[in-house]
Amino acid sequence: MRWFWVDRFSEYVAGSHARGLKGVSLSDEFIHGHWDIYPTLPNSLIAEGMAQTAGLLVSEMYDFKELVVLAKFTKLSFNTLVRPSESLEYHATIGRALDAGAQCMVTATARGIEGERQQAEAEIFFARLSTSEADSEAAQKGLPPRLFDPADLARWLYVTGVFQVGVHEDGSRMKPQDYDLPVLA
């Protein structure tokens, strides 16, 4: 993944829900071109942050070993604009989990000097491609079967705080070894 729209996780319960945070700064170049005179975070990037938060939950359900892709937004609505100096909190919850993938509900809450308000709401379906299906498709396109190299995934999980706040449903702390990921110092 080239762009990350989640700065860190404040809560992560495997197989259940997660809270991801994103700060919006006036120094972020991408907010200046959306409206000519008024810098805002584009809704498309907010949707991507929602998808990354939920997608990580779904991918963890399969121990980060299977190819999980965003299949569709079954519902998506936006309420306000997000401006520099505000932050977003994404709250993702796994709904139905099927063999074909999983449905997640995600909200985005904006926080700033004027208080907090619900910014967006979505239902997202993530498709799970079987290992042989993913290997075959990836091989045809000259790509690896995983979206992430295990070391890159572990690095992202460390940087965003998943291993600092993440727990399994039984309350035990998530560790890289649980997923055959490298332990980074």
TrEMBL record:
Enzyme class: lyase
UniProt GO molecular function: (3R)-hydroxyacyl-[acyl-carrier-protein] dehydratase activity
This protein's UniProt keywords: Lyase
Domain of life the protein comes from: Bacteria
Protein EC: 4.2.1.59
Gene3D superfamilies: Hotdog Thioesterase
InterPro entries the record matches: FabA_FabZ, HotDog_dom_sf
PANTHER family: 3-HYDROXYACYL-[ACYL-CARRIER-PROTEIN] DEHYDRATASE
Protein name per its UniProtKB record: 3-hydroxyacyl-[acyl-carrier-protein] dehydratase FabZ
Highest classification ranks of the organism: Bacteria, Pseudomonadati, Planctomycetota, Planctomycetia, Pirellulales
Gene expressing this chain: fabZ_1
